[in-house]
Design brief:
The structure holds two protein chains of two kinds. By secondary structure, chain A is α+β, with helices and mostly antiparallel strands. Chain A has two domains: 104 residues, no CATH class; 174 residues, Immunoglobulin-like (Sandwich), CATH 2.60.40.420. Helix content of chain A is 48%, strand content 14%. Chain A is built from nine helices and eleven strands. The longest helix of chain A has 44 residues. The N and C termini of chain A lie far apart (68 Å). Chain B has a two-stranded antiparallel sheet. In chain B, strands 3-4 form a two-stranded antiparallel ribbon. Chain B has two domains: 500 residues, Cytochrome c oxidase-like, subunit I domain (Cytochrome C Oxidase, Chain A, Up-down Bundle); 79 residues, no CATH class. Chain B has 17 helices and four strands. In chain B, helix 6 packs antiparallel against helix 7. The chains are: A alpha+beta, B mainly alpha. At the A-B interface, helix 1, helix 3, helix 4, helix 5 and helix 6 of A face helix 3, helix 4, strand 1, helix 8 and helix 9 of B.
């Protein structure tokens, strides 16, 4: 009980205020003490505190205004009651606000859809992306219909059935027919979406045909992507993380003949209308290979190679024309938190015609660089790690 | 104090030591209290404190997103090495995001919400003297308190708090050298979480056993208010799913500190080949989301229960489709255990599994839709009284609709390919889980404040608080959908490295300012809350004219809740505006024999003797009318 009486005295309040004042003083003293001599920076500090003080005052002023308005409302309310009238009818006031909020909200949603809605990704630049986009717009239409109906009903009911002393609520505890209807209709709609989505998903992650026309290895590590193309044989050499050296950062196994002609690339260049299979690896933590323009995303998981297969359908040049943006580039970036540099882990993706692709790939340097050749020659005798078979395979 | 009768309906080992009541010291009354009402207040105040901290963290990282190129000397003064030159460090930014999420999901919306209202309302609404085990209940709070202290203490260590996102996926969280936030801060996170789960389990076991064993006479399961149903099912969810997170966390501790490889394989870090072999990072994701998805229902179901109750009371109408409401809660509870894979569509999980999880996920939308329609039907033709609590309950429904609808996009594996981990997801869960649950919690605070503190909160300030928070929450989260549709990823320190995202900078600034205003709106709440505890208007016993049992208990808190015998329950809790009755509410403790004029045949569904009496009474009524 002692606690309660103590808190009840307004002395406690003044004590808190005194503490706060003291705390601020100490903090400010530290602020200035931390930068001795340098008059320049201490001036900056005092500027900063002036700025902070200004905003604190603004907030206090806002609080005071709210308090004053509150008091005025209260006085008005009391004076109404003294005159024998009823006080302010807050049920009516809030009811009207509900309608205003509904109308403003609907306009806001419309505005947001038109202005911000026009800033979203352009049409899909891949074959499967079209199906995803169609699925997306179908879902949008259905859900937006529900959204507008339910929100409108909610706020209109609030206005229409706002409280009054003259009325009583309508005792209506249940109606099994209505309840059955609004259980079954969502169930049917969702079944349609599920079936539709299931087949879209199965066709996108088609596991019957695992090979693409072109096989590309993309390896993620903090905070960059490494790209490896197969050479003329069209086959990528095996990798083993234990073979990692600074010259062979992917750990390519050069006992595998397929690896000799592998190519190293800085940009992910893809020929249009060819099926591409991207093999996704990670070396340290989980990353995610995200190419939103192609509606492609798959995590890069250390110890668990994944892949994504898709067919680009619009070349970069074509997309630039369509968007009227000469600087447009397709991008590949990391979409799974991976550390301090997560926000800048990107690669340019370029979709080109078949001919351009051929000339580009002919210019790429082999992965087996000169320093690496030298190193391998020296380290020829060392066996690759025997751990390669220990990987657990959760998928594929 | 009157002697309390030991009630006679199967409560084993429940004898109160009432002698202690008179010797309450400061320590036993306010600190190590075993009284459920005090523990509820402890949970609430700790929860609010944590919420304010987490909100301030969010404003810090929102400032970074709005002004990525600007430096704020104040930040350096406040945060020191975490904001060199007045700009947030990228790794500290991730720590802020992580701790914001962790605190909000676990410490505010799990412990703060369930802890407060389950503790307060379960004994009071089912008619029990206290929880099944008051001592374990006390431990539950103190474990939660310790967890909170450990979590916050990580701000005071050299490398800062955990930074791998609130989902702490290994290998990032398992390799201390991968980022600052994976060093000691992550260890503290894991220890804090183990304490938290212990707290949550002790609470959950108590809630379940109290609801099952300690209901008062007449309180069968179908006479329980929806709040109690929601808390009960939430507790079951927590008891079944939290242990799985402990398993995941303990294995992660082993990987971090004892050199095991449960989650690790084939790793080269900073040019060093690591010795880990044979583990799978996906395993952690399965363990995490096996809790993680039920967790979002642990967060939202109490808010649903509170909103149902508040909406019924303030519409002066019975909740529409009480049975459907309960069955949909049960449906959500069961289904929530088989949908976790929808967080992992693009993690490399077998695509066939993705298809299965998509089906279960979209099924769970059905009970959610039923609940929404039933709330709307409850409002229909009501006599709606706009208390602050009512407004927050309505806000909860509005957010639940807006956020729930985007769940249909994300639950669809095909659409998730492009939406996964973008701002679309951020918008979705902040509306459906964040805003909706916090509004449910605030509705509960405004509604049961008189029960907790014996005083009323100021309604007008509550209105101001509601409208500012409600509008700003939409202004913050609505535009984020479109950012997500443009492929803007979450957890990015700055968008400046991507010229394609430049057009979102103004939107980001707008969002930040909306968030700051929403933050300031909470001053209205905090002032109202603290001021009303000490100087609020004194409440009457039943300020909202509500039916449930807690309003039959005296305003003064007494150990054991009711002086004398525990009241007996005769009817369901939603007899509002029943035709034929003079007031627009009939409390659960009013026997049907006292309300003959308003009884309906339906009231005697499983009571044939009563039905016969009712029919006879109705017959005499009719014949006397004919005589007239």
């Amino acid at each position: 009980m002692g606690f309660k009486t103590f808190m009840n005295t307004k002395r406690a309040f003044s004590l808190v205020a005194a503490f706060l004042l003291l705390g601020t003083n100490v903090l400010m003293a530290q602020g200035t003490a931390a930068t001795p001599a340098a008059a320049d920076s201490s001036a900056q500090k005092s500027d900063m505190w002036l700025g902070v003080g200004y905003y604190v005052l603004l907030v206090l002023l806002a609080c005071v205004i709210v308090a004053v308005v509150g008091k005025i409302l209260r006085v008005y309310d009391l004076s109404l009651q003294m005159q024998g009238k009823k006080g302010m009818n807050w049920n009516n006031i809030i009811g009207v606000i509900c309608i205003i909020v509904l109308i403003a909200g609907l306009y806001g949603v419309y505005w947001s859809f038109t202005v911000q809605g026009s800033m979203i990704l352009p049409e899909s630049a891949s074959a499967h992306g079209g199906k995803i986009d169609f699925m997306f717009w179908t879902t949008t239409v259905i859900t937006m219909f529900v959204f507008f109906i339910t929100q409108t009903l909610l706020w209109v009911f609030l206005f229409k059935y706002r409280g009054s002393d003259k009325r009583k609520g309508y005792y209506y505890p249940h109606n099994n027919t209505i309840e059955k209807i609004w259980t079954i209709i969502p169930a049917i709609v969702l079944t349609i979406l599920v079936v539709f989505g299931f087949f879209t998903w199965r066709s996108v992650t088609n596991t019957d045909n695992l090979k693409g026309d072109i096989n590309i290895d993309v390896t993620a590590h903090q905070f960059a992507w490494e790209i490896r193309y197969p050479g003329k044989d069209g086959k990528l050499g095996q990798v083993n993380y234990q073979l990692y050296t600074p010259n062979n950062i992917l750990g390519v196994n050069f006992k595998d003949r397929n690896s000799f002609d592998d190519l190293k690339a800085d940009t992910l260049v893809l020929p249009v209308n060819r099926e591409v299979r991207i093999n996704i690896h990670a070396q340290d933590v989980i990353h995610s290979l995200y190419m939103p323009h192609f509606r492609v995303q798959m995590n890069a998981v250390p110890g668990l190679p994944t892949f994504f297969k898709f067919t680009p359908t619009i070349t970069t040049a074509d997309m630039r024309n369509r968007l009227d943006d000469p600087k447009f580039e397709y991008l590949l970036y990391c979409n799974k938190i991976c550390g301090g540099g997560h926000y800048n882990m990107q690669k340019v993706v370029r979709v080109v015609s078949e001919a351009e692709y051929e000339t580009w790939i002919a210019r790429q340097k082999p992965y087996l660089s000169d320093p690496l050749k030298k190193e391998l020659h020296l380290a020829d005798a060392s066996e690759p790690g025997k751990a390669a078979e220990n990987k657990i395979a959760l998928n594929n | 104090m009157s002697t309390l009768a030991v009630h006679d309906h199967g409560v084993a080992g429940h004898d109160h030591d009432h002698e202690h009541h008179h010797h309450d010291t400061f320590i036993t009354k306010y600190v190590f209290s075993q009284d459920h009402k005090m523990i509820a207040k402890q949970f609430l105040i700790t929860g609010i404190t944590m919420a304010v901290i987490a909100m301030l963290l969010s404003i810090l990282f929102r400032i970074q997103l709005a002004y990525p190129d600007k430096s704020f000397p104040l930040l350096e003064t406040l945060l020191g090495r975490f904001a060199p030159g007045g700009r947030l460090d990228p790794q500290f930014y991730l720590s802020l995001v992580t701790i914001h999420g962790t605190i909000m999901v676990f410490f505010v919306l799990t412990a703060g919400l369930s802890g407060t209202f389950s503790n307060l309302l379960i004994p009071l609404q089912v008619g029990a003297r206290d929880m099944a085990s008051p001592f374990i209940n006390m431990l539950s709070y103190w474990f939660f308190f310790i967890a909170s202290v450990i979590m916050l203490s990580s701000f005071f260590i050299q490398k800062g708090p955990a930074g791998g996102g609130w989902t702490i996926y290994p290998p990032l969280s398992a390799l201390p050298k991968a980022m600052n936030g994976s060093e000691l801060g992550m260890t503290l996170w894991l220890i804090s979480m183990v304490c938290f789960i212990a707290s949550s389990l002790m609470g959950g076991i108590n809630y379940v056993s109290t609801v099952l064993n300690m209901r008062t006479k007449g309180m069968d399961l179908w006479k329980m208010p929806l709040t109690v149903w929601a808390f009960f099912l939430t507790a079951i969810l927590g008891v079944l799913s939290f242990p799985v997170l402990v398993a995941g966390v303990v294995l992660l501790i082993f990987d971090r500190s004892f050199g095991t490889s449960f989650y690790l394989s084939d790793i080269i870090l900073n040019g060093k080949i690591m010795p880990y072999e044979g583990g799978s990072p996906i395993l952690f994701q399965h363990l995490f989301w096996f809790l993680g998805h039920p967790e979002v229902y642990i967060v939202i179901m109490p808010a649903m229960g509170i909103s149902s109750e508040v909406i019924a009371v303030n519409s002066r109408k019975p909740i529409f489709g009480y049975h459907a409401m309960v069955y949909s809660l049960i449906g959500i509870t069961v289904l929530s255990f088989i949908v976790w894979g929808h967080h992992m569509f693009v993690t490399g999980m077998n695509p066939f599994l993705g298809g299965v999880f998509m089906i279960t996920t979209l099924i769970i939308a059905v009970p959610s839709a039923v609940k929404t329609f039933n709330w709307l039907a409850t409002l229909w033709r009501g006599n709606i009284r706009f208390t602050a609590a009512m407004l927050f309950a309505i806000g909860m429904v509005s957010f639940f609709i807006s956020g729930g609808i985007t769940g249909i996009f994300l639950g669809n594996a095909a659409l998730d390919i492009n939406l996964h981990d973008t701002y679309f997801v951020v918008a979705h869960f902040h509306l459906v889980m964040g805003s909706a649950a916090i509004f449910g919690m605030l509705a509960g605070v405004y509604h049961w404040f008189p029960k907790m503190f014996g005083r009323l909160m100021d309604q007008k300030l509550g209105y101001l608080h509601f409208w500012l928070t409600f509008i700003c929450a939409y202004l913050v989260f609505f535009p984020m959908h479109f950012m997500g549709l443009d492929g803007v990823p979450r957890r990015y320190y700055a968008m400046t490295e991507f010229p394609a995202f430049n057009h979102w900078l103004s939107v980001n600034t707008f969002i930040t300012w909306s968030a700051i205003i929403a933050g300031f709106a909470q001053i209205a709440f905090l002032y109202n809350f603290i001021h009303s505890i000490f100087w609020g208007k004194k409440t009457t016993q039943n300020p909202w004219d509500a039916n449930t049992l807690e309003w039959t208990a005296p305003v003064e808190h007494i150990h054991g809740n009711w002086p004398g015998e525990i009241p007996t329950v005769y009817r369901w809790p939603y007899d509002y505006s029943k035709p034929g009755h003079d007031t627009d509410f009939i409390q659960q403790t009013t026997p049907l024999s006292e309300t003959m004029s308003s009884n309906l045949p339906h009231d005697f569904e499983d009571n044939p003797a009563g039905l016969q009496q009712y029919n006879e009474w109705a017959k005499t009524q009719r014949s006397s009318e004919e005589v007239k």
